[in-house]
Amino acid sequence: RQPVQGFGMRMMNFGKPGTYLPLAGFLALAVPLVALIALMHTLDRGVQREQWRLHMAAMVADASHELTADFHEAAGDTLALANDSDLIHHLSGEDSTEQLARRFETLMRYKPHYCQIRFLDPQGMEKVRINRTAAGVAQSPTQDLQDKSQRDYFIEAAQLPPGAMRISRLDLNM
Hints:
The protein is α+β, with helices and mostly antiparallel strands. The chain has helices at about 20-80, 85-90, 95-110, 150-160, and strands at about 5, 10, 115-120, 125-135, 135-140. Helix content is about 50%, strand content about 15%.
């Protein structure tokens, strides 16, 4: 039989001694090449996954540091207010809520990440609440003040000794 020309390769009849298959030659090269590409892809995905994991761990650590700093700042502001002798003196007077509201408003103007500051009486009723809105910092009207006596944070705080502080779990203001 005569050789048949095709695809630029010499093809001979199957089964005769000395013949070859172009597909066998192609597969001999392609299979290891595909395996190498698959291995490189798997290794690359592993490297990318590890880089992503390290990036996420760094972001969590940064957020944790920022959150801790914010808690320390809020704790410091709370302690400063709680130990302000002028403020404590005014709380016993007639103008106590106005004086407290002015202090809270001033504090919020300098602390743009504070969205709300409130003062609760020993029974858990809001006496002053200052909110940050799109329009700015504003005191809530008396009729909008709420009873917080059943909230976990108030119940837990009411059991603390004087001068103690506790940071409660996050409570979304909705």
